[in-house]
Design a protein that fits this description.
Structural class: alpha/beta
Strand content: 25-35%
CATH architecture of the largest domain: 3-Layer(aba) Sandwich
Number of strands: 17
Distance between the termini: 48 Å
Largest sheet: 6 strands, antiparallel, barrel
Radius of gyration: 22 Å
CATH topology of the largest domain: Rossmann fold
Order of helices and strands: HEHEHEHHEEEHEHHEEEEEEEEEE
CATH class of the largest domain: Alpha Beta
Shape: globular
């Protein structure tokens, strides 16, 4: 990799964690001298203080370790205007948003590109995903040309679902050095290289919240409004909730109901009512079909027949190390119908359904699970 990139301008997006630190190490080991950037997107607005100073200090230590320049890029306003507003708008409509997906599309590879990244040939990140280019690693002739987003060798850490809304230009500039490494190997490299972040724990949760409680964040914008919790089988009121916007289809924890398990299977937005079903084996929490609206292809344009007839695929509807199998069919207007071979639990409108080729090697694209499907399950 080093030779073909030696005359290219490369930057690394540092987070302060072990993964992006190892990316920096791997690039410098190949004789490259990338510029380092930390994107500040925390919510330092007084009520929700989400300091990034610890992350920045770790980035500075990494930059010093390799003698590389580090710059902090402030994209907080862009984040509020795009990702936070998207999140609140979706929650208000009773949907289940995915801020991490939109952060990658609109901020890390969107606003950053407009402000800084346009000056570079490549942007390297610590995401666990890979690049399939000119047929290398392609699972079939369908992907033998062009550039595609490939899954990581570590299925537990694979993050292609978080990258499933990036576009072809963003993909064309992306370097993903960790895609062919399992997490334990990344940690070993960090320890042997004595990286400042080598023993730092992996970050968890939504990208902009940090240590902020998600419900507290939602409450700040939408407040609370008491509503009924109804057993959908009996029609009886069995409890109350503080607002439908705190809950999602398929949710089990945090309902405050005794004698469980209880699962959220439907939301009446107009009446602020949650409908729940009892037991792990209730069929009401499962479905086999859903629509993906505003479908977004990541890589090179798919062949024209794709999806016209039911096309075998693998897919995910949430971040997990497991793929489901099924088919996808175009139903017009950038909308596709996914049919699963098995029952899928908790199909939540607003979430992204992420589509892969049937070998689970190429991340083809994603669409938002349609609202109407909630009534079809």
């Amino acid at each position: 990799m080093g030779q073909e990139l030696s005359d290219k301008r490369i930057c690394v997006l540092l987070s302060g964690g072990v993964d992006s630190g190892v990316v920096t190490h791997l690039l410098t080991e190949r004789g490259l001298r990338p510029d380092l950037y930390y994107i500040r997107i925390g919510m330092d607005d007084g009520q929700f203080a989400c300091t990034a100073e610890e992350d920045i200090e770790m980035c500075r230590a990494t930059a010093h370790r390799y003698g590389l320049p580090l710059e902090v890029v402030d994209l907080q306003q862009e984040y509020w205007d795009n990702v936070v507003s998207y999140t609140i708008e979706r929650v208000r409509r009773g949907l289940t948003p995915n801020p991490d997906v939109m952060c990658n599309r609109l901020i890390k590879f969107g606003a950053f590109e407009q402000k800084v990244g346009h000056a570079y040939d490549y942007i390297a990140t610590g995401h666990y995903a890979s690049i399939i280019e000119d047929g290398i690693g392609a699972p079939s002739e369908e992907f033998a040309t062009g550039r595609w987003l490939g899954t990581a060798v570590d299925p537990v850490k694979d993050q292609t679902d978080f990258l499933a809304q990036i576009d072809q230009l963003q993909l064309s500039k992306l370097l993903l050095p960790l895609g062919r490494l399992p997490k334990n190997e990344v940690r070993r490299i960090a320890l042997e290289a004595h990286l400042p972040s080598a023993r730092r724990k992996d970050s968890q949760g939504i990208c902009f919240l940090g240590k902020i409680n998600y419900n507290d964040f939602v409450k700040r914008f939408l407040g609370e409004r008491e509503g009924d919790v109804i057993d959908i089988e009996t029609g009886k009121r069995i409890g109350s909730h503080r607002g439908y916007w705190f809950h999602t289809i398929g949710q089990r924890k945090g309902l405050g109901l005794g004698g469980g398990p209880w699962f959220v299977v439907r939301k009446d937005i107009a009446q602020n009512v949650l409908y729940v079903s009892h037991g792990y084996d209730t069929l009401l929490q499962y479905g086999r079909t859903f629509h993906l609206r505003d479908f977004h292809f990541i890589g090179s344009a798919m062949p024209a027949p794709w999806g016209i007839e039911p096309t075998p695929i693998a897919f995910k509807i949430r971040h997990t190390d497991r793929f489901a199998e099924g088919t996808i069919t175009s139903v017009g207007d950038d909308t596709y119908l996914v049919h699963s071979q098995t029952d899928i639990q908790g199909i939540a409108p607003g979430q992204f359904g992420v589509i892969y080729d049937k070998s689970c090697t190429v991340c083809i694209g994603s669409g938002e699970i349609g609202v109407a499907d909630a009534a079809e399950q």
